[in-house]
Amino acid sequence: MNIALITGASSGMGMEFARQLDRSLHKTDEIWLLARRREPMEELARTLQHKTQIIAMDVTLDSAVKQFAEVLAISNPKITVLVNCAGVGKYGKFAHQSDEEVSNMMQLNIVALTRMTKLCLPYMRRGSKIIQLASGAAFVPQKAFAVYAASKAYVYSLSRALNKELAERGIRVMAVCPGPVNTPFLSRAYGEDSNIGRLKKLATMEAESVVNKAVMDCKRGKSVSVCGLPMKALYYATQGIQNLLCKFT
Ligand SMILES: NC(=O)c1ccc[n+]([C@@H]2O[C@H](COP(=O)([O-])OP(=O)(O)OC[C@H]3O[C@@H](n4cnc5c(N)ncnc54)[C@H](OP(=O)(O)O)[C@@H]3O)[C@@H](O)[C@H]2O)c1
């Protein structure tokens, strides 16, 4: 059985990936939707053509990840696409953030994403794809978004390295690096009254176009997907030399 697995599928870009992959994946039997909240995933599932499995779990919990590993071992699927969308950001000065806020970002954005990637790899074959939600925040350290930006720099670096490492197995890894995207993430990160600066507000994009670009870039075999002019400018300005070096490592 061929499956696509999407984490963070109860909201924002994860939901949008489910909708767009539902239309574009023809050799995939089921789409597995994973997040903590079951209800929005059930609602989403009703609108999809593919058969779906809903996995309501907290990816930061050891026990839940172990259970999910058992589910994979029993059903032994071929994972054609893994989209790691589950992520969280909390705006604010490092010294003022609670231990819990800092730990949540690291546990979800770094540890859980890495574990899910490692867990799914044995079920991937030549042609399988891994799409990792990094961020434009990966390109430059950001004051008052320090841990979040650093966590996304990790995702970006991991993805690019794995893309090289897994090439011999025919598995591609792509980092998606959007600027601000109009999803519930923004109010969770910046608060309801939105501390988001004017520039960021102007550069905010819709999930539909970011995901559409990511799905197309993934088909084209790109290692990084960057949507919108401001983010592209930042990407080329900051990653130019690294891209060159990446070709030779
Ligand atoms: N929106 C932006 O401006 C933006 C920009 C650049 C990058 N990104 C990145 O893109 C990804 C998707 O963001 P989004 O904008 O779609 O955010 P979102 O709408 O807030 O969605 C986040 C998703 O993560 C899930 N999640 C959170 N904690 C979880 C946990 N412990 N276990 C399992 N699932 C969990 C949430 O579902 P439950 O609450 O149901 O668990 C939700 O489905 C994130 O990695 C984010 O960092 C976002």
Structure overview:
The protein is α/β, with parallel strands linked by helices and 249 residues long. It has a single domain, classed as NAD(P)-binding Rossmann-like Domain (Rossmann fold, 3-Layer(aba) Sandwich). The protein has nine helices and seven strands, in the order βαβαβαβαβαβαααβα. The protein has helices spanning 12-24, 38-46, 62-75, 99-120, 146-165, 184-190, 198-203, 207-219, 229-248; strands spanning 2-7, 30-35, 51-56, 78-84, 129-133, 172-176, 224-225. A seven-stranded parallel beta sheet has the order 3-2-1-4-5-6-7, sandwiched between helices. Helix 1 crosses helix 8 (207-219) and helix 4 (99-120) packs parallel to helix 5 (146-165). The radius of gyration is 17 Å and the shape is globular. The structure holds NADP nicotinamide-adenine-dinucleotide phosphate (NAP). NADP nicotinamide-adenine-dinucleotide phosphate is lined by residues 7-14, 35-37, 58-60, 85-89, 108, 133, 135, 178, 180-181, 183-186, 188. NADP nicotinamide-adenine-dinucleotide phosphate (NAP) binds at residues 7-14, 35-37, 58-60, 85-89, 108, 133, 135, 178, 180-181, 183-186, 188.
